[in-house]
Design a protein that fits this description.
single chain, Jelly Rolls, eleven-stranded mixed beta sheet, disordered N terminus
């Protein structure tokens, strides 16, 4: 009987291992709009501008770890063609399995993120966080963030510049950034676009103080404290080439860790210089 029990336990262990292995898989897709859940995150291929920037984009996605790789991108476009990325929260019809967001900005004691990625030294692209803020807690659907804001944090980039108004340098989370803003729109949807471009690009960050960027935008009048944080995304805005690109690891923490020092691993590729023509004729919005 003891031998039989041992055999049964061994078979159960093998069966459990086989099930676990079978449940983990690498998904390879060239679909323009493919969403894959991975724990509290969603990975999206998000080839949103394929009409103006036609081509083929292929992505490998690990549905267990959330890592993904852009293996092919044939579009040649002066504008952004796609944003293959990982999403935490709710934005443009994509909702991840988490409960922290949406949340009022004034309720956020801290928002931090770790991200490690591997870019390539070809083409035109920017590897960046994309953070979405809603003015009235009624956003997140495919109709977007009318009246709200989009805050981007460009960690690394090549042959790409900020747009439209250059507001000069600012030091946040232990690094100097060049701040840009513009009024963005898509159809009848209008929002404020704010972008922080790293003066010294990095390919890895730990404990990035995302909340400090939001507070800086609040202090400048781009955001309001009673607005809602809906999503924190991270990916690569593709324009021309820029493959292979791999997002190795990404995580977001909301109101859980405080006081940890931000650390960066700077890129080994020669950085694209950030333009430095401060536009003092265009003030921040009231």
């Amino acid at each position: 009987m003891k031998t039989l029990n041992l055999v049964l336990k061994f078979l159960a262990l093998v069966g459990s291992f086989a099930f676990s292995s079978a449940s983990a898989k690498m998904i390879s897709t060239c679909e323009p709009f493919k969403n894959v859940a991975a724990g509290p995150y969603v990975i999206q291929t998000d080839y949103w501008n394929n009409t103006q920037c036609p081509g083929v984009q292929c992505v490998n996605i690990d549905d267990q770890t959330g890592s993904f790789s852009v293996t092919e991108s044939t579009s040649t476009c002066p504008n952004v063609s796609s944003y293959p990325s990982i999403v935490y929260g709710k934005a443009w019809g994509v909702t991840s399995a988490q409960t922290d967001l949406p949340a009022p900005l004034r309720s956020l004691q801290c928002v931090t993120s770790d991200w490690d990625f591997t870019p390539t030294n070809t083409g035109s692209w920017d590897t960046a966080y994309d953070i979405w803020i809603c003015p009235d807690n009624q956003c997140g659907s495919a109709s977007g963030f009318n009246g709200g804001a989009e805050v981007m944090i460009w960690m690394d980039y090549r042959n790409a510049n900020g747009w439209e108004h250059d507001m000069g340098p600012v030091t946040i989370s232990g690094k100097t950034w060049e701040l840009w803003w513009m009024d963005a729109s898509s159809g009848n949807t209008k929002w404020k676009y704010i972008a922080y471009l790293a003066k010294t690009p990095s390919t890895s960050v730990k404990n990035l103080a995302v909340g400090d960027f939001l507070n800086d935008s609040i202090s400048r009048g781009y955001l309001k404290p009673d607005w809602y944080l809906y999503a924190v995304e991270a990916g690569n805005e593709m324009r021309d080439q820029g493959v292979p690109f791999t997002s190795n690891h990404f995580s977001v923490s909301v109101n859980k860790t405080r006081g940890a020092k931000t650390t960066y691993v700077d890129t080994t590729f020669p950085p694209t210089p950030t333009p430095g023509h401060y536009d003092d004729s265009v003030p921040s919005p009231p």
